[in-house]
Amino acid sequence: MSGVLHSKVAQVTQAIIDRSRASRSDYLQRMEAAKGNSVSRSNLSCGNLAHGFAACSSTDKDRLTMMDEANIAIVSAYNDMLSAHQPFERYPPIIRQAVREMGSVAQFAGGVPAMCDGVTQGQPGMELSLFSRDVIAMSTAIALSHNMFDAVLCLGVCDKIVPGLLIGALSFGHLPVVFIPGGPMSSGLPNSEKARIRQLYAEGKVGRDELLACESESYHGAGTCTFYGTANSNQLLMEVMGLHLPGASFVPPDGGFRDELTRYAAQQAVKLTHSSKQQNLAQIVSEKTMVNAIVALLATGGSTNHTIHLIAIAKAAGIIVNWDDFATLSSVVPSLTRIYPNGQADINVFHVAGGVPYLIKTLLHGGFLHEDVETIMGHGLNQYCQEPKLLSGKLVWQPAPEQSADLDVLTSVAKPFSKTGGVVTLQGNLGRSVVKVSAVKPEHWLVEAKAVVFDTQSDFEQAFKRGELEKDLVAVLRFQGPQACGMPELHKLTPYLGVLQDRGFNVALVTDGRMSGASGKVPAAIHLHPEAKAGGLINKIKNGDLLRLDCHTGRLELLVKDELLQARSAAQQTTSAAHGMGRELFSNMRHLVSSAELGASICS
Description:
Layout: H1 7-19, H2 21-35, H3 46-53, H4 58-66, E1 71-76, H5 91-100, E2 105-111, H6 117-120, H7 129-144, E3 151-155, H8 161-170, E4 177-180, H9 191-202, H10 208-218, H11 230-240, H12 256-274, H13 281-284, H14 287-300, H15 306-316, H16 323-330, H17 347-353, H18 355-365, E5 374-375, E6 378-379, E7 386-391, E8 394-399, E9 423-428, E10 431-436, E11 446-454, H19 457-465, E12 473-477, H20 482-485, H21 494-502, E13 507-511, E14 524-529, E15 546-550, E16 555-558, H22 562-567, H23 587-592
Parallel strand pairs: 1-2, 1-3, 3-4, 11-12, 12-13, 13-14
Antiparallel strand pairs: 5-6, 7-8, 9-10, 10-14, 11-15, 15-16
């Protein structure tokens, strides 16, 4: 049962509705026009249709010809290299059979690219990572552009992939769209031990062989990486937004349970095409749904990448969200989870403790989520306070537990770990940025120290190894924004900053780049805009300038007199992202991309 909606949640929701009125109305009108009154493929010529089902079986051709049964598009991000996506290899046959049992047809409409940020960390390819989201969105649109389909199944898990699939699918928001997850890998080396060995490597106390053994024990099989980064944030948010089946996000990838969930999701897509209410994607992704997503992100200390992605997703649905919405909600939304890097437990422990169904249940009861939303299961988020079970080979849903099974990992609104959320918005003379504070101890929320300025991660690494950083400092890493080089994640810095903090120094990071879901114990003001390439004040910071980063008050200040700053020349980008590893193909995107707070997008 839902509690009375919190006044701040209602306030933010109404503000979003008011500022989005014109753009949302335009989007819904376009989706209504796209829906029409007939099956999409009935608008195709005979030649068009013949091409569309030429490779189908005779039975499927008959069904597609008669126009009275659904054709379900499969859009998949399968590849062998991403552990989270490898299980998708066997999904299409399961989906086709499940849809055939409903008298309908499923066609593999298209594959979208899926890169692994874990592989590209610290490499030139990471500069394509954020842009891959918009490439995926465009690829999704191409897959659906044949106008053959009545509903869509999106198969994706990781980082930019789920946001890209959703942004692309929103251009076809007149259709029902169901997202199918893959599930996490089994737990490996404890996260605390992994972090310890990484820091020892950064200090030169263990070698590459020991580090590789550690990483291999951590990332050891099929499924999502088990820490609470962007991939698992994606899965949790898709469930809270009503785009997954209830409780489906963190069921392991192998075995009959996952297969039955996949079958059910495929058949649910067919049912939605026959529903008179038609829970289409445009109806599901509403202003209230976007607020629910932000609340869930804050309550779980999820990935800071979603301070970019959720804005871009919302904009694709005609909804205008900004960082002030995140900040207002973060001031009242309680912190309810401790999942690495915000704690030591992994996502499997969270799932066993009650997982997303319990999280939704306690947030609804506390008045922090809108219950009156559309979902792929019908109207109302209360349906998501259930968890699936496989009993005697049959899939059933049962009420979420009344209490978490592990109160050290997942707690209730009544007894939160913190009364505020996991993300803070900072602003000041440098511009605006965000900090993930859920893993940062309160004594590190305020850092005032002299700047040490770098243009690359490698420069920082070399300075550390030379012993030049043994002091209180604010590391400034600039020319890492979307216009400069595609806004790569900067996790190569994490072990070194952690070492400095452990040695007793007050340290922080300020950057126009990203850190994402693995942001850890060192305060990092990220996504700073205006970025250096766009003329932001970060490009005038010099070594020794005093900086103040205050997560208590939400301020980020360069403590240098205005007349001195006005007399300074702006630094110029010294490294080039123009060539190598395919980066030359993305030059237009670097020129056209919006700022981080506008979604760092060229698509929406």
